[in-house]
Amino acid sequence: QRSLLRLLSCPGTVAADLRREEQFSGSAETGSEDRTPKKRFSEVQEERREQAQRTVLIHCPNKISEKRFLQYLSQHGPVNSHFFYESFGLYAVVEFCQKESVASLQSVTRMPGLGSEAAVPFRSRYFNLKLRNPLNQAAEQSSVHCSHQSSPSSKKLFELLCCAESVDDQLTALLKTFQLTEENTRLRYLTCSLIEDIAAAYFPGCAVRPFGSSVNSFGKLGCDLDMFLALDEIGNFSAQKTSGNFLMEFQVKNVPSERIVTQKILSVIGECLDHFGPGCVGVQKILNARCPLVRFSHQASGFQCDLTTNNRIALKSSELLYLYGALDSRVRALVFSIRCWARAHSLTSSIPGAWITNFSLTMMVIFFLQRRSPPILPTLDSLKSLADAEDKCIIEGHNCTFVHDLNRIKPSENTESLELLLKEFFEYFGNFAFNKNSINIRQGREQNKPESSPLHIQNPFETSLNISKNVSQSQLQKFVELARESAWILHQEDKECRSSNQPWGLATLLLPSVTNNISFVKKRKKPASERIKNLLESIKSSSTENSTDTNGK
Ligand code: GTP
Ligand code: MG
Question: 102 in ligand 1 pocket by Cβ < 6 Å?
Fold first, then answer.
């Protein structure tokens, strides 16, 4: 009982702070007054990382007495928080108040005796709980509450969307349903931390950090876990020492290029994960890619992981997206809807190829929001002009400087509704001159395309690169046609009554094929893309004549 008391009196650290933060964030209403007082990206990363280092992952029997489980663990020190989840078995994530508790727990664990098989003696923070006397505890064992780690079925999603009161509510509901939960985020940081333990066997003092949609605030439940191995933090490696007689030979042997260093490091870490990494399966070394990586499945967490190294610019891009996502509550709601829409129509795919990526789609939404009048998001150049000395950042010769303090950025005066923005997004890109213009969030305006790829989206930091170079003409055409059809459907719906038992608004747009949905707006023949464009124009001009604008609802 004493240990339970200790558990309760433990001061909440990160968890409590983050919950408080959630209370602030409110709903995705429009306007500037609801800006979330969010922490800086680097603060969140550091806090989460430290929290993950105090956390363990435990594979439990299917039925367990939660009370006894916590009593047992708190012998090693007070527990700050815990949750259970299912992923081919029951797992618990337990966060201790102090890091020493993890070592204490490790000191009493034993290596499994596997009979004919042999165990590799690697001490991880991923345990397997075997009850000695399951029968003695049977009376107390019960099914524990499990937090969900995956997105809802499409049936549930449609029910949710059809019950909403307005298109704005639909977008907000979609965001709330698909965004990463607090537990899922913790599990992502914990997984990185467990991989870091393995990498640290080769490179003591290294860090494995999550990036991409796990941390940029645009992640959907079930998205992959992008992580990168940071070696430049070891012993202030980047602080160039110019004096002294000793040159440290702690790096890999001299090799002809940075790329080969990256490949060598990933090659050994990949081998290590494959042979010794607890729960790491299906390890693939993809070392000849433009950005070499090791791909694997982390079985216990259920995450598909992509491990890279030497990838600081990608972390910076994640930080930039995080900032844009935090500036105005409409940003995330719109990005989520567009990402879901693109997925529903197979415009994006989990297989690499000629498809548009979620990263490119997010850039398109940011660009569109910079083009509104008044703008909803500032350009990257204006974020750079607000930066101070502390924000200055040059990576591999690229200027990645932008302001990090959200409070220094003036809120937008634009009050357009999500419904209007969704409609206008489709119209904007349904009519965009992709053949001659490039999308550029640094300047927030179209520019002449510097090369002939069908879709050109300038990489915000490596400005000579196109992040959508892979997109084929036919994929771009498909995007344009679907955007026009979706704009047309939303315009048609304006004029019709919404029925609660038929998909409407966002739900119509997410049905697998828009072509099939034309019947919902009482058209039998599939209208050709050009005809939709003309129809849209006629609807628009008549609505301007009749002054029935939906703006500012
Ligand atoms: P998901 O589809 O939800 O995984 O979105 P994501 O943003 O995580 O995208 P992805 O896993 O494909 O890539 C991870 C991160 O790598 C992105 O967030 C970007 O920071 C970066 N990235 C992806 N594609 C490119 C690219 O073409 N160029 C550059 N410079 N960075 C990229
Ligand atoms: Mg990703």
Answer: no
- What is the structure's pLDDT at 126? 93
Tokens of 321: 């997206």
3-state secondary structure 160-187: HHHHCCCHHHHHHHHHHHHECCHHHHHH
Query: Residue 394 corresponds to which tokens in the numbers above?
Result: 């040059």
- Cis-peptide into 374, omega within 30 deg: yes
Q: How far is the CA of 226 from the centre of ligand 1 (A)?
A: 8
Partners of 293 in beta bridges: 286
| Alpha-helical segments (H) within 255-400 | 258-276, 312-327, 329-344, 358-370, 380-385
Intervals of the chain under pLDDT 50? 1-35, 514-526, 544-553
**Ligand 1 atom 26: the closest Cα is on which residue?**
467
293 neighbors 281 (Cβ within 8 angstroms) = no
Q: Ligand 2 centre from 357 Cα, in Å? A: 10
Which pLDDT value is given to residue 148? 86
pLDDT at residue 86 in the model: 93
The predicted model scores a pTM of: 0.85
* pLDDT at residue 529, rounded to an integer: 65
For ligand 1, say whether the CB of 466 is within 6 Å of any of its atoms. no
